[in-house]
């Protein structure tokens, strides 16, 4: 505890504590003194004449906010801790809180919230809705400028995702996000725009939105691919305005063959939801059966006795589904399937229950669950992958394609009919996207062309060679397009492990070969000419011919290419763009099952806001989540009290 000599009428000792900038000492009687707060005039015991009370209780009073805010702002340090109140900084944090947690702007005028804030800091002056809206826009513009600077140094191209949002009105919004790999070989996805369009499903709506976004972010020449959900039509993307615009800028690689990518998560949802809908009557009976059993503990106990009597292991517990999440419907059917005999028996001994599916119904459920397991496992594999680079999707997609195709050939009519229904939809996705998926997996040093050759042989049989050739030819053609582009100077890769050196100016490559000053400049020119004329293997061919990297758990493909960037300077540019293709629009940490197949709907409150504010709220929320200050509190925002 801090102790100080009480003031004397004959000799005053200089008080060093910071508290005396906010307190004065007043003599009361009999030599006793009290400390009086300059702001609130409250007094505290200080000295009774013979004993000094100290200053710790005065510091606590300051920490609670009862001290002057007159400028200039001052920082007061107590035992190494910082105690600062900043009105503008508090506005900023309040705006960020509203953005990140999707609170309504008018919460700043809610009396209960205002009272709560005042109890924490009486000096904070609450703003109105209009002022907070301005603060939100300020956060948006500041973070946008930061992102613009990052994009300015982006070494490769960017791939876009396009999503549609509708409102209760006839208006809609188009959400544009960009995915890229940075100079440190880290994968990033950022929302770029959330734009209002009068007719989101019109022919030119997507074209105009993409064109505006590319211009606004100075990426006219950096577009690689566009990923769509199943609400967007390829015809919209290929509309003449956008197509001609991009073609004139020479931004489409492989003549646009990779331009449009369909969302893998959405095709899984479409196929799963459609096959469940095809047996909706049976699903209804199963749902009602589960409801009946779980309606009371007595029924659950009776059902358990029946299962035990029949000899059902009962490894799975009955569960009800959420109708909008097909994975829960699948799990409900799979668990019920184990108890099918118990449901049949229950119907014979309980007159109140008459929802048991028939034997044929259970047969259909069994087949549907077999195929749904493929989609369910594939979705879970994607969701549990931290870095969703494009290479991980080929292995999932080709297995689904193969199993569904084999199912269509089954002699069992129930199996073949259900498989045909599912395969018809997934096969269209496979035909549209197998090339981009294959190119991406070839860039995985654990597989290269070998997995393509293996899987295509199983899918296409005797015709596989022609399909494999298409992939191989397109990879080489794409590589040549990158060869024709200027390459930044970088240290030469020396396979023998020798040191790498950068010669000359990074921005101005030497016009003549480097010479050691030994008078053999002509000899250096001769060697350069020989190297040019000599037929050597390209980086791509060298990469493909080298042995595969072992398939170890936790393999980091981006880190592998980071380490081999110098060895394959041109190929790595192509790989950077290929791996950044967002094959799924559902980001890491989000549920594929909940992504749905219809347009997402903007709630009535946000629909009532002006479009600029809606865009600011959506984009800023996306950007702020990646800032360290949103996960680690600022040191100036924490007040630690000394006791």
TrEMBL record:
GO CC annotations on file: nucleus
A Gene Ontology molecular function term of the record: DNA binding
Domain of life: Eukaryota
UniProt main location, coarse: nucleus
Cellular localization per UniProt: Nucleus
Domain BED-type: from-to ranges: 14-74
PROSITE patterns: ZF_BED
A GO BP annotation: post-embryonic development
Keywords associated with the record: DNA-binding, Metal-binding, Nucleus, Transcription, Transcription regulation, Zinc, Zinc-finger
Summary of subunit composition and partner proteins: Homodimer.
Protein name per UniProt: BED-type domain-containing protein
């Amino acid at each position: 505890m801090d102790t100080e000599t009480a003031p004397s009428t004959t000799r005053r000792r200089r008080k060093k504590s910071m508290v005396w900038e906010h307190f004065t000492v007043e003599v009361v009687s009999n030599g006793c003194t009290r400390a009086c707060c300059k702001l609130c005039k409250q007094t505290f015991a200080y000295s009774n004449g013979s004993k000094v009370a100290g200053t710790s209780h005065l510091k606590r009073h300051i920490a609670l906010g009862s001290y002057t805010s007159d400028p200039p702002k001052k920082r007061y340090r107590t035992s190494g801790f910082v105690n600062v109140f900043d009105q503008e900084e508090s506005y900023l944090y309040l705006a960020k809180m509203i953005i990140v947690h999707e609170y309504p702007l008018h919460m700043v005028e809610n009396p209960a919230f205002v009272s709560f804030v005042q109890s924490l800091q009486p000096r904070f002056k609450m703003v109105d809705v209009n002022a907070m809206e301005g603060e939100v826009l300020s956060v948006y513009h500041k973070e946008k400028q930061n992102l613009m600077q990052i994009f300015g140094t982006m070494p490769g191209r960017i791939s876009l995702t396009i999503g549609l949002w509708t409102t209760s009105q006839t208006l809609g919004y188009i959400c544009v996000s960009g995915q890229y790999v940075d100079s440190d070989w880290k994968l990033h996805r950022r929302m770029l725009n959330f734009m209002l369009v009068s007719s989101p499903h019109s022919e030119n709506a997507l074209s105009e939105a993409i064109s505006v976004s590319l211009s606004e972010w100075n990426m006219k020449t950096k577009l690689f691919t566009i990923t769509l959900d199943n609400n967007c039509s390829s015809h919209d993307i290929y509309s003449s305005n956008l197509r001609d615009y991009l073609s004139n800028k020479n931004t489409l690689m492989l003549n646009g063959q990779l331009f449009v990518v369909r969302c893998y998560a959405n095709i899984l949802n479409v196929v799963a939801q459609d096959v469940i809908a095809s047996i909706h009557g049976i699903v209804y009976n199963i749902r009602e059966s589960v409801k009946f059993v779980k309606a009371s503990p007595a029924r659950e106990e009776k059902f358990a006795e029946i299962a035990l009597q029949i000899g059902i292991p009962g490894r799975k517990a009955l569960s009800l589904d959420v109708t909008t999440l097909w994975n829960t419907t699948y799990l409900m059917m799979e668990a019920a399937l184990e108890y099918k005999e118990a449901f049949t028996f229950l119907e014979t001994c309980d007159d109140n229950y008459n929802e048991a599916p028939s034997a044929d119904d259970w047969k259909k459920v069994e087949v549907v669950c077999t195929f749904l397991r493929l989609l369910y496992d594939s979705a879970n594999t994607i969701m549990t992958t931290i870095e969703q680079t494009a290479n991980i999707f080929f292995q999932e997609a080709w297995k689904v394609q193969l199993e569904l195709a084999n199912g269509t050939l089954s002699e069992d009519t129930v199996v073949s009919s259900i498989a045909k229904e599912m395969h018809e939809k997934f096969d269209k996705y496979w035909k549209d996207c197998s090339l981009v998926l294959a190119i991406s997996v070839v860039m995985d040093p654990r597989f290269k062309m070998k997995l393509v050759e293996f899987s295509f042989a199983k899918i296409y049989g005797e015709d596989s060679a022609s399909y494999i050739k298409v992939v191989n030819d397109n990879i080489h053609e794409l590589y040549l397009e990158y060869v024709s582009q200027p390459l930044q100077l970088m240290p030469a890769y020396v396979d023998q492990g020798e040191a790498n050196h950068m010669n000359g100016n990074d921005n101005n490559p030497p016009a003549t070969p480097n010479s050691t000053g030994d008078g053999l400049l002509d000899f250096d020119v001769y060697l350069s000419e020989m190297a040019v004329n000599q037929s050597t293997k390209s980086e791509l061919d060298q990469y493909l011919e080298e042995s595969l990297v072992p398939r170890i758990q936790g393999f980091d493909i981006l880190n592998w290419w980071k380490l081999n960037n110098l060895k394959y300077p041109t190929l790595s540019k192509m790989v950077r763009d290929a791996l950044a293709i967002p094959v799924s629009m559902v980001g890491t940490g989000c549920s594929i099952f909940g992504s749905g197949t219809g347009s997402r709907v903007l709630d009535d409150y946000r629909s009532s806001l002006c479009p600029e504010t809606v865009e600011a709220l959506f984009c800023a929320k996306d950007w702020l989540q990646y800032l360290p200050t949103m996960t680690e509190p600022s040191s100036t925002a924490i007040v630690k009290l000394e006791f």
